[in-house]
Amino acid sequence: MINVRGIKLSLHPFFVILMLFSVLTGHFLELIVLFSIVLVHELGHVTAALIYGVRIRSIQMLPFGGVVEMEDHGELTAWKEIGIAIAGPLQNVVMIGAALLFRELGWGDGSFLSYVIYGNGMIASFNLLPILPLDGGKIVHAAASMLFPYHKTLLWSSKISLTGSAGIVFFSVLPLLQGEARIQLNLLMIGIFLLYSNWMDYRHIPYRFTRFLMNRENRYGDAAREGTLAQPIIADQTKHLDGILRLFIREKYHVIYVMNKQGGLIAMLPEQRLISAYFATDRSPFLF
Length: 288
Prior knowledge:
This protein is of the alpha/beta class. Helix content is about 60%, strand content about 15%. It has 11 helices and 7 strands. The chain has a 4-stranded mixed beta sheet. Strands 5-6-7 form a 3-stranded mixed beta sheet.
């Protein structure tokens, strides 16, 4: 593990296994190029995060990218999250452009530059798949969270990611199922990692949603400064409190209109009132 200005850089065990395989098969040079591409890809994420004022805790390198652990106290908006996610593949586009220019000008070895172009294209394309924690999955989730209730986006992004991860595992063993005596081992390891990671995320949805509610305080100040219109939520007086909180949208501030069975207005409550009641030790599961 390397520590650079408080940022811990480490290799995931899958990357170490891939390094051992590359040494045994004589493809160590290709792995060094791949590692360099992945590192520049991750530095794109880190640079974008630092520009937005987000503190980076650690970077863990994976064969297809990496995992950047950031400190988020509710200040990371959906647009900032999209910007950070897209900054990685953008570095791959820049490197592809540079390699194409070098090849056109006759600078460097043509086959090496072709591998650089292929490697960058592969890393960028794979990372843009709509599977968490890949960049494409983060972009889709952040974009959806601006339009749909946050709890629903957590649930469906996890389900889509689980399905996509299972699809990668299936594709890796497809040659074997078709009668060929081989499997795509690298792809299989990546698929298993993604499947396990998304299964754990799916199990932790309640905790992730609780953290979302705990960080809503920053949304109050933003709404007041921006003078934005509140997003209304109409709720029956007997509706479960948890069910109302699951209707909250990430970038919106909510006012809840509590109605009786006759359609009359009983109360108009700001969202922080419901969140406070939810975290109170003696809270009732219902509004009234």
